[in-house]
Amino acid sequence: MASVTNKIRHRESNMELLRIIAMMLVLGVHFCGAALSLPDHKGNPELLSEGDWWKLVVESVTIIGVDLFVLISGYFGIKTSWSGIWKFSLQVVFYSVGIYFVGLLLRIWTMNWTTILHSMMIYTKTFYWFVPAYFGLMLIAPLLNAAIGAMSRRTYTLLLIALMVATFYGGWVCDMKFCNDGYSTVNFVLLYLIARYIRLYFPRHCSTERKLRCLYVIAFVLLLSGIFTTSVFTSIAFAYNSPFVVGASVALLLFFSTLRFQSRVVNMTAASAFSVYLIHMHPLLWIRLKNLIISAAAEMDYAMFGVWCIVLMTAIFLACVLIDQVRIYLLRPLTDVLSLLCEKATDRLCRLLRL
Fold it and tell me: Mapping DSSP to helix (H, G, I), strand (E, B) and coil, where does residue 126 land?
């Protein structure tokens, strides 16, 4: 992932902090909706219990995490290369396969060759839906970047409007299959183009930045309210292609784009944020984590459970980041050599094809 593997010295800490927040929100949405499941109230608020109301509130805040993560990639731009594709793939395979073998060594589960084979097929037989969707975005990013460079601002604006109409009306309201509730490369393309537009044309550091920050915060709060309100009456409120979800994500991105600070700790932590998703959502770990969350929810009151979730999410995040820093340190020589070999092979192929 180009935006995930950039060197630390090139990172903007304000946006890297947002990347950390985005992954914490992803953890939150998994703890809430994925583990405890959302109420099936069929648009009737009278069927909601007190616990259901809390679930809708938490889900309304945390659902923006995935869109934020993709927006950050678009903000910096994905510079697709064979080396970048290889490193991204190797990181996913490392956790997909590695976690399984660690479990075998600890005798947590038994050998299953079908499971091992599927864990290697990270773009087809995968349990990480985000990985193939983002990989698709990586593949077409050069075309998107070239198109953006060739378009005028007016053309770019009209294109964004057309894509938003297609996504929000066709994909969200009419539930056309091309968008799949936002779980697709199609939605990622829209998010990427929105973020590139912001990077190119929106003011970041100017005399009115304080007013802009207030405006972005107000928009963020209103759009979160929109997510919650729609969740009371419809089951599609938490789709990643919802205009309220996309809008709230964009508002938060705009707010962080106006901040200025540098922190090596933040940059290093953010460099490993993607590993948090790859580790905690591995199916062999997730099923155990999910059962733990369900048990805790049944035994604790709402306040205590909320505190417990925050503590556990923080612990998981920090543990995953530490594991990934070790991975980066140990595998850097191997990934560098393999990336170099991959680039040389690509160059030879291009010469043979006279490209």
Answer: coil
